[in-house]
Design brief:
Helix content is 51%, strand content 4%. It has a two-stranded antiparallel ribbon with strand order 1-2. The two termini are 27 Å apart.
Length: 102
């Protein structure tokens, strides 16, 4: 059911595979503090390809009632989905969008 729901709202999809950002264990624990030049070269290239695709090909996503999914809304949807899945529930885009305080 989750797969069907996601496919309904996001019928076009493109997948990206990312290598580990770094092989340094200590750096991986604090990845949010790392600079770009501390990342593995392959990861940097993959990240740039991903960003290029998003910035050049991605269109604005909207939900059922014309709700525009911005970066903040997408982050909220991701958190809501992960929490629902971790709790054993089936996530629903409409419910996640309506629970967003923005």
């Amino acid at each position: 059911m989750s797969r069907e729901c996601i496919r309904k709202f996001f019928p076009e999809r493109k997948s990206f595979v990312f290598d580990r950002p770094t092989s340094a264990g200590k750096l991986l624990l604090h990845i949010e503090e790392a600079s770009e030049n501390q990342m593995e070269w392959d990861f940097q290239v993959q990240s740039k390809n991903f960003c290029s695709c998003i910035f050049t090909k991605a269109k604005i996503e909207t939900l059922g009632e014309g709700i525009i999914v911005t970066g903040n809304e997408l982050a909220t949807l991701v958190v809501t989905y992960v929490e629902a899945i971790n709790g054993g529930a089936v996530p629903c885009v409409e419910n996640a969008a309506h629970s967003n305080p923005h």
